[in-house]
Amino acid sequence: MSKLNSLAISDNGFIFKPSTGESFTTNELGLFIIQFLKENKSGEEIINAIMQDFDVDNVTAGRDMYEFLDFLKKENMID
């Protein structure tokens, strides 16, 4: 996740990508997922944490995580 570590990420969800000058915003869930990715947590660990912290079921947590990962990949923020 070295690409992820090169991003400037604020506590309020502002993400700056220095390599391109692009900026993005994310919500609380996106910040939550990014933190877990930076800690090299597995997908299963992230889904379980989402279920616990956001009080959602397994299907919803998985869908939300994979949609956000797809966004990060599309924007070349993770491999």
Walk me through what this model shows.
With 79 residues, the chain is α+β, with helices and mostly antiparallel strands. It has one domain. It is 56% helix and 13% strand. The chain contains 4 helices and 3 strands, in the order H-E-E-E-H-H-H. A hairpin with a 4-residue loop joins strand 1 and strand 2. Helix 2 runs antiparallel to helix 3 and helix 3 crosses helix 4. The radius of gyration is 12 Å and the shape is elongated.
Give keywords:
13% strand, alpha+beta, 79 residues, three-stranded antiparallel β-sheet, 4 helices
How is this structure best summarized?
56% of the residues lie in helices and 13% in strands. The protein is an alpha+beta fold and 79 residues long.
Write the layout of secondary structure elements.
Layout: H1 2-5, E1 8-9, E2 14-17, E3 22-25, H2 28-38, H3 43-54, H4 58-74
Antiparallel strand pairs: 1-2, 2-3
Helix pairs in contact: 2-3, 3-4
